[in-house]
Protein 1
Amino acid sequence: MEQLSIITDTKAIHDTLLEKISSEIGNEATVDVGKNSVVLKSKDEHSKEKIVNAITKTIVEQYENKLISKLINQNYFYFNLPDRKRIYKKALNYTGNDAAFNTLVNTKLKEYLGTTDKLMIDGFVNFRLKDYQNELEEVIDKAVDDFMVEKEYKEFIKLLKYFVEIQNPKYNIINIIPSGENYHIYNEAFEDITALCSKDFLKGDDEKISSDDLLISILISVAPRKICIHKCECITNTELISTIKQVFCKKVTICGGCKFCDN
């Protein structure tokens, strides 16, 4: 019968470990509980494997979020506190499925326990799980990239809204009807004004402008009092619709069906 002595540094870790041992092992191992320690005696390789699984789950549950917070504060200290909190939440979304991290911690734990029968959980995490921390750093880097993209997008929307506010409306209503990869634009009398509105944006190299970018540019330029989007289901770029709604807010309506939508 193999014996393993585990030092738990906090009550939370101690209680979590006992909970995992109970659910993972049951009566397959002898458990002696001290104030800050747990001594386990495994009966066979199968029960030893379950002990390692219990410790692995304890480490991931008790340390992962704390490590993420620590690494964010350490590597991205120049962000203000609210921004670091947003990055933290995004990083947690990436670690929602802990399977890969569990496997990494489990592997390192088996390697370590192959050389000793004593485990100080806190020391093991800090000094033996550098690969795990490196993986978490990569997760945090992705979260920061997402955060920066969203921040730049919000600043872009804010700028577009400002341009709309300083423009004098050239039309009361603009009707947008998608046609393949392009868009037709009609005024309130349903006269096609696509060419008229596009001419200032289709000069020289600007002819390479995407239809989505062209539509946004036109809407910003003419600053209509109202926008009605027809055949919304035919617009594959949902981000385009979101952008229009964010810039023009209550001015935007989605047509639920009309004779122009049926054509």
Protein 2
Amino acid sequence: MTVQPSATRGAAARLLGRLLVTPALPRPRLRRLVQLYAGLALYGLSGALLVHAGLGAMPWDVLHQGLSRQTGLSIGTWSVLVGALLMLLWIPLRQKPGLGTLSNVVVVGLTVDLFLWLLPETDILAVRVVLLGLGVLVCAVATGCYIGAQLGPGPRDGLMTGLAARGWSVRVARTAIEVTVVVTGFLLGGTVGVGTLAFALAIGPLAQVFLPLMRVPAPPAAGPDGS
């Protein structure tokens, strides 16, 4: 018996639908992909700016930096490894990754190492303060690009939403995760400082400005005749 191609495609689509939150790439495809990978590269840039500022990294990079100092592996390498480990925690939480999730794990780690290598270090306090401000601003733009593409949550956000689905409030889940991450990273030698606090206070309001600007509109719904 010959299997019809349409039946094979349908079975594949159903399988992907069970595994991924975004099994197909919605239109407009090019804009979503450009925005996704631009956002991920900007995440890497923002992390590098905050690390080079030396005034306190963003919460997860405090952990990555601490692990890096203890092991000799790069911050970007630890970003990839931690992201992959977090995705294992998604399994019992029954969270579904998307293209953005899988890309996040790899691209942010690669780009943060690239920009740490490209950007010069400085001991001038005024320059470090500028790097801090730019890092927070760039991260807000990156957040707007990444979330606006709507191709799946990041591995860290997925952990938070997974806990929220188990009865935690989003605020409690996020606070518990980030406090644990910062304390662990600090004990390992990561840099906690005014930059960490400034990031925590400013990223939410700034991201809220860019999210509506970057949100990709949903494709039009098909009519009754499928058009």
